[in-house]
């Protein structure tokens, strides 16, 4: 597996990151066994970076991963473990409360403690704020990060789903770097190409992580706006490129993301062993600038201006 250094850190991550959102399934014995097999398949295939969040499976995904670490404690020092927090569910401790975001010091500190307990580890390699809290105080967040760093509970920090202005605001209050911004990037959602997110990543040595990288191809995109004609154009171009590169259309989409000079790291979230392994094929494609723009043109339905 190709590796990439997360700039401003000593973390050498597999270029493809394994996403643990679905590993616990319905939390039945069969689903949990399937999830453990997926984790071990990913490790055997060279994935060393695993992405979590406290809300995945209501905490069950982290707990399942923690069981794997308990069964094989020698794995911990070979892995990069990332988790996220900051989304609070409706009525969690207050019958009046709606679903909301919370970057307050106490909530983030308590959240990290819960994450570490479920994962059965004493530290996170990266901790990310999951979605922007519209009420967040940058100085308070910076102070919270400093406490987590000093305690040894978190090595490095980042954000998820932040716009460039939100990244700049938080950076202005921090004495340590933000090392990643995890955002949706796929053939359907190309906002990061247009709103300055990927430009900012390159400017500040922030490594972008792409969630839902196969949205609009292997599964429906969030908030799909493609017409039937859009989908047919994209499908036709992907099939042509798949034939050219002797691979599957979804592997072409991964190669399209990997081509970008910001060094996007896509998250692979399948629990099917064959698909976890097959994703690595995208790293081998000799994917050209012409391929990239042909797929963009098919996506947009017109050539670039």
The first-to-last residue Cα distance is 37 Å
Strand order of the largest sheet: 3-4-5-8-9-10-11-12
The total beta strand count reads 12
The percentage helix is 40-55%
- By CATH, the topology is TIM Barrel
Shape: globular
Overall structural class, as computed from helix and strand content, comes to alpha/beta
Q: Would you tell me the overall average pLDDT?
A: 97
* CATH C-level class: Alpha Beta
What labels would you give this structure?
17% strand, two-stranded antiparallel ribbon, 41% helix, 11 helices, 305 residues, 8-stranded parallel beta barrel, alpha/beta, TIM Barrel
Explain this structure to me?
- It is a single chain.
- This protein is an alpha/beta fold and 305 residues long.
- Helix content is 41%, strand content 17%.
- The strands form three sheets. It has an eight-stranded parallel beta barrel with strand order 3-4-5-8-9-10-11-12, surrounded by four helices. It has a two-stranded antiparallel ribbon with strand order 1-2.
- The longest helix is centred in the last third of the chain and has 18 residues.
Can I get a quick summary?
Helices cover 41% and strands 17% of the residues. It has helices at residues 29-44, 60-71, 105-119, 138-151, 164-173, 191-194, 197-203, 228-245, 249-258, 273-278, 289-300, and strands at 3-5, 12-14, 17-19, 49-51, 80-85, 87-88, 100-101, 124-129, 154-160, 178-184, 207-211, 265-268.
Task: Map the helices and strands.
Blueprint: E1 3-5, E2 12-14, E3 17-19, H1 29-44, E4 49-51, H2 60-71, E5 80-85, E6 87-88, E7 100-101, H3 105-119, E8 124-129, H4 138-151, E9 154-160, H5 164-173, E10 178-184, H6 191-194, H7 197-203, E11 207-211, H8 228-245, H9 249-258, E12 265-268, H10 273-278, H11 289-300
Helix pairs in contact: 2-3, 3-4, 4-5, 8-9, 8-11
